[in-house]
């Protein structure tokens, strides 16, 4: 995300106290049934921030009971005015605004996020998304339908029920809001499992959920690991829907478990290998900047990372030159420190994977323009890296890197680049840079991607549906569409003595 | 704030009833001028007019009297605020919604002040103003705040090699003329969707009741709407109202008031520049009580339905059709209710009925009551003014009313309940529908098929089943036939405040 003039932001909170480290069920805090806890790490220093209760199947079962109870016909939550659900979500947004500094500090500390981004982009995005969803609560309409026969027919868009929501570590708070916002607007109850790397902001949100006045059991949070708590959710017989954001590999496991258990509804936001296509007639500076941010934002840890940049032959050299210059402008370090604009990767596993892919790039013959290895000897840092002369068969052109590594490739014709851009089982996002009206429209129509950005990149707004084609996901989040993913449609047909149009 | 589910705290209902709100004593009226560009102006002519308290018959204060030149000034400001590149046109839609939410917050903050002002100016009971008028206003602004960034056009699979999409744009400068029966609420019903969709507005509140509209102007400024987005010109119908209806630079007009004036507004709108028109007009609303109804419920609903707000509702249940078998009992219980209805000082918490709005309405109602007596209806109770009490009229019930009587055909707009008898469903449907009005209808029955049949057969914009005056910001409201054009509230209101533009881009044929 390019930030033109950055507004004044406060300094991160000094002496951040972590108040909430337990499992949240029925608006109360619980120890894990097993008694186990797990450590939460600061990826910039590799130090333990604190320990959090480790949820497993038994805790998920408890949470499901509470969520199911809160969803019973006749419950406080089911009988609440829809507009009141909206009021509660707006109240939650106000509380996030109040605790913005605390949440941004916690998010930056736990997630390795550059503080200014956490404060402005993550928190800003959360508050806006919550308000957007709040507005939908009493506007979820069914229809009355002119069916055949002497029948009065209408549809109701009901909440689905108990929704399990598994959140990733790259945008812990934002992804949390993207899940609970629409779910609660539609009247569901939820069980959230934040990523094991980054549970802290979700747990603080739990305290705000209680403060805002949501009835007990409506929001439940069970921190823990994928193979235990996550798997328990995907295969639970009494959870009606699972929503997951994370890797394609794990997404497949979740959908499989959902099918094998009770056919719970599934929405998935997975990985990508998103192409950016830069035509010769593009505004080159704009293309360089957007493509750059598109792959380097948040240390490359974005599902929409612009990790394959196709540049039209005639402007290729200039594009490379400017991109390399741009990639050298990073100051790495502790993301809470002023002046730092690149933080660490989230953990050792990611760190090792990225370094391995960088090595493959070198071995397979791509040209290393800058960076190419780890940075510093404490914290999971990787130098901003640019590869050129990348060919489509190289691992760095095919596999999702999720690190600060930019691939630049050359193309000749429009038909060819469209084929190459689409030649992946991913399909999340794409960028097109051109001033030509016709090219913009035809190329965006041809790309197999859920989001196509023209002359911009990574522009996300709660009003717009977001999601992937092919193996980048199933379903959409946010926008009007995303809201309907959290409803179950019921058709009611009443016999009447005579119908009239 | 009480919701329909009762007070909720931390998800648990709290057992104690909230304390009753109190009116503000010796309230100073601060805003009495014309509001244009977020500032206060005197009338171009220098004229002022008085606004009265209908329960004491005393003058409250004087207000600047607008006329055509003031309307022209307001329209200029509204047009400037609507220019491309203006702050208002460039605002993110979400931000428009936020401004509306903040306006709702200020209405909550100043709820007691506004309810006091409304009571002083209209004579409606203070608790009604506080719990119904103000509640409705706050909810309306919040509801439409939520729509602001959800006003979506379509992309359309048209024939040929084109890209085709629609934009749902604001119409432009919208005029709104509001009535004296629910001054602030009727204003909110227009202002909220207009602003939500990105329009700018020139409003004329009723000359009997300008005060709450002007106070709202101060809140508009406090919230930070850009100057010129909302402009308020108090004055009279034949001057300010006519100037708005026929203004060539106003793109749309919304009017709530009598059918008679509604026709004039639509005529002027057409004759000038074909501005878009929405109208919420009068009604002669049937209330149908079937023999199998919950009779207590029906009696209470029909009673409140006609007597609420001193009978001064477009939705007044002013023809109550009761099925033969339960007619006698229904009349008996209704008369009991009417006799018990507390009439008096609107600031007294016990009062359910205040004065009529002014002498003209008062005289018209009494004249219609006399016609009822003359034409042979049976006067069960009331039938005259309260002795020595200015504009107060006794709650009046007529039975044995027949369809041809004036009280069965003309809108009374006063505390008068005409009760008629019917034998069967087909008959009552015909009779209920034989009027040029078509605003609301109510049905009391426990039978599923009867309810659905009547709901489908009645020619009314709203049909209430086993309830009355059940208004929700989420549900559209408006009239069939001569009760109005268009709908307010709900998603449907958005269509009245947007103009659809279709954009078609031809693509090069060599790249199909």
TrEMBL record, chain A:
It holds the Pfam family Aldedh. The active site is at residue 269. Keywords: Oxidoreductase. Residues 29-492 form the Aldehyde dehydrogenase domain. The keyword Oxidoreductase applies. Signal peptide: none annotated. InterPro entries: Ald_DH/histidinol_DH, Ald_DH_C, Ald_DH_CS_CYS, Ald_DH_CS_GLU, Ald_DH_N, Aldehyde_DH_dom. Belongs to the aldehyde dehydrogenase family. This is Retinal dehydrogenase 1. It comes from Microtus ochrogaster. The gene is Aldh1a1.
Automatic annotation (TrEMBL), chain B:
Residues 1-23 are annotated as: Disordered. The keyword NAD applies. Pfam families: Aldedh. The active site is at residue 280. InterPro entries: Ald_DH/histidinol_DH, Ald_DH_C, Ald_DH_CS_CYS, Ald_DH_CS_GLU, Ald_DH_N, Aldehyde_DH_dom, Aldehyde_DH_NAD(P). Keywords: NAD, Oxidoreductase. CDD domains: ALDH_F1AB_F2_RALDH1 (cd07141). Residues 40-503 form the Aldehyde dehydrogenase domain. Signal peptide: none annotated. Belongs to the aldehyde dehydrogenase family. This is Aldehyde dehydrogenase. It comes from Microtus ochrogaster (Prairie vole).
């Amino acid at each position: 995300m390019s930030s033109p003039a950055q507004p004044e932001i406060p300094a991160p909170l000094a002496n951040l106290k972590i108040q909430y480290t337990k499992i949240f069920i029925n608006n109360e805090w619980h120890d894990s049934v097993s008694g186990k806890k797990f450590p939460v790490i600061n990826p910039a220093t590799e130090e333990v921030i604190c320990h959090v209760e480790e949820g497993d199947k038994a805790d998920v079962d408890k949470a499901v009971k509470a969520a199911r109870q809160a969803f019973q016909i006749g419950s406080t939550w089911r009988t609440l005015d829809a507009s009141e659900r909206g009021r509660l979500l707006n109240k939650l947004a106000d509380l996030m605004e109040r605790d913005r500094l605390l949440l941004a500090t916690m998010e930056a500390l736990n997630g390795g996020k550059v503080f200014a981004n956490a404060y402005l982009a993550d928190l800003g995005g959360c508050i806006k998304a919550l308000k957007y969803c709040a507005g939908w609560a009493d506007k979820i309409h069914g229809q009355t339908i002119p069916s055949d026969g002497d029948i009065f027919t209408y549809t109701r868009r009901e909440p689905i029920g108990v929704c399990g929501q598994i959140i990733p570590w790259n945008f812990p708070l934002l992804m949390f809001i993207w899940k609970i916002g629409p779910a609660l607007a539609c009247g569901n109850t939820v069980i959230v499992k934040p990523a094991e790397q980054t549970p802290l902001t979700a747990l603080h949100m739990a305290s705000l959920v209680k403060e805002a006045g949501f009835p007990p059991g409506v929001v439940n949070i069970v921190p823990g690991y994928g193979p235990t708590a996550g798997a328990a959710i995907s295969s639970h017989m009494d959870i009606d829907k699972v929503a997951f954001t994370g890797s394609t590999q794990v997404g497949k496991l979740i959908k499989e478990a959902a099918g094998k258990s009770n056919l719970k509804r599934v929405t998935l936001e997975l990985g990508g290998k998103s192409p950016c296509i830069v035509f010769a007639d593009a505004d080159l500076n704009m293309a360089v900047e957007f493509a750059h941010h598109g792959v380097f934002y948040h240390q490359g840890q974005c599902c929409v990372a612009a990790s394959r940049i196709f540049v039209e032959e005639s402007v290729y050299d200039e594009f490379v030159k400017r991109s390399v210059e741009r990639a050298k402008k990073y100051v790495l370090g502790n993301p809470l420190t002023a002046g730092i604009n690149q933080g660490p990767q989230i953990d050792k596993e990611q760190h090792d994977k990225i370094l391995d892919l960088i090595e493959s790039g070198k071995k397979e013959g791509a040209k290393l323009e800058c960076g190419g290895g780890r940075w510093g000897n404490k914290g999971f840092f990787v130098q901003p890296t640019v590869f050129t002369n990348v060919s489509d068969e190289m691992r760095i052109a095919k596999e999702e890197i999720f690190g600060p590594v930019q691939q630049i490739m050359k193309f000749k014709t429009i038909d060819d680049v469209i084929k190459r851009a689409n030649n992946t089982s991913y399909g999340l996002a794409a960028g097109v840079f051109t001033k030509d009206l016709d090219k913009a429209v035809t190329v965006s129509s041809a790309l197999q991607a859920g989001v196509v950005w023209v002359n911009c990149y990574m522009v996300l707004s709660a009003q717009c549906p977001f999601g992937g084609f092919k193996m980048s996901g199933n379903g959409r989040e946010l926008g009007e569409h995303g809201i309907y993913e959290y409803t179950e449609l019921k058709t009611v047909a009443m016999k009447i003595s005579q119908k009239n149009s | 704030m009480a919701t329909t589910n009762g007070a909720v705290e931390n998800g648990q209902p709290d057992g104690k009833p909230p304390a009753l709100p109190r009116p503000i004593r010796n309230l100073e009226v601060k805003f009495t001028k014309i509001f244009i560009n977020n500032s206060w102006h005197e009338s171009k002519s220098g004229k002022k007019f008085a606004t009265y308290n209908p329960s004491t018959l005393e003058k409250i204060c004087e207000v600047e009297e607008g006329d055509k030149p003031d309307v022209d000034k307001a329209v200029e400001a509204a047009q400037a605020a609507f220019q491309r590149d203006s702050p208002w046109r460039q605002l993110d839609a979400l931000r428009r919604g936020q401004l509306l939410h903040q306006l709702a917050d200020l209405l909550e903050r100043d709820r007691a002040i506004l309810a006091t002002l409304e009571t002083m100016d209209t004579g409606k009971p203070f608790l009604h103003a506080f719990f119904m008028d103000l509640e409705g206003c706050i909810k309306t602004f919040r509801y439409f705040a939520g729509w602001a960034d959800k006003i979506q056009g379509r992309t359309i699979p048209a024939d040929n090699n084109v890209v085709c999409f629609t934009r749902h744009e604001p119409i432009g400068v919208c005029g709104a003329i509001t009535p004296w029966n629910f001054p602030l609420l009727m204003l909110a019903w227009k202002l909220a969707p207009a602003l939500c969709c990105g329009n700018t507005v020139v409003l004329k509140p009723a000359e009997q009741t300008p005060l709450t509209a002007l106070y709202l102007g101060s809140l508009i400024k406090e919230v930070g709407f850009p100057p010129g987005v909302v402009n308020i010109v108090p004055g009279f119908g034949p001057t300010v109202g006519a100037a708005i209806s026929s203004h060539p630079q106003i793109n749309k007009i919304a009017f709530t008031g009598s059918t008679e004036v509604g026709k004039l507004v639509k005529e002027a709108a057409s004759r000038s520049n074909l501005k878009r028109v929405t109208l919420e007009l009068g009604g002669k609303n049937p209330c149908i009580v079937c023999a199998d109804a919950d009779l207590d419920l029906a009696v209470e609903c029909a009673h409140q339905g006609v007597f609420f707000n001193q009978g001064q509702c477009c939705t007044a249940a002013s023809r109550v059709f009761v099925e033969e078998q339960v007619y006698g009992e229904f009349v008996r219980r209704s008369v009991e209710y009417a006799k018990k209805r507390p009439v008096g000082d609107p600031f007294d918490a016990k009062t359910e009925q205040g004065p009529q709005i002014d002498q003209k309405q008062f005289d018209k109602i009494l004249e219609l009551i006399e016609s009822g007596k003359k034409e042979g209806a049976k006067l069960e109770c009331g039938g005259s003014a309260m002795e020595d009490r200015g504009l107060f009229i006794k709650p009046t019930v007529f039975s044995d009313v027949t369809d041809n009587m004036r009280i069965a055909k003309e809108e009374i707009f006063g505390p008068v309940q005409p009760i008629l008898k019917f034998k069967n469903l087909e008959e009552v449907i015909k009779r209920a529908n034989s009027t040029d009005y078509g605003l609301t209808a109510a049905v009391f029955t426990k039978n599923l098929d009867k309810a659905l049949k009547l709901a489908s057969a009645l020619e009314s914009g709203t049909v209430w089943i086993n309830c009355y005056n059940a208004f929700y910001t989420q549900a559209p409201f408006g009239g069939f036939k001569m009760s109005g054009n268009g709908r307010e509230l709900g998603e449907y209101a958005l269509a009245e405040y947007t103009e659809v533009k279709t954009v078609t881009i031809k693509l090069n044929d060599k790249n199909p």
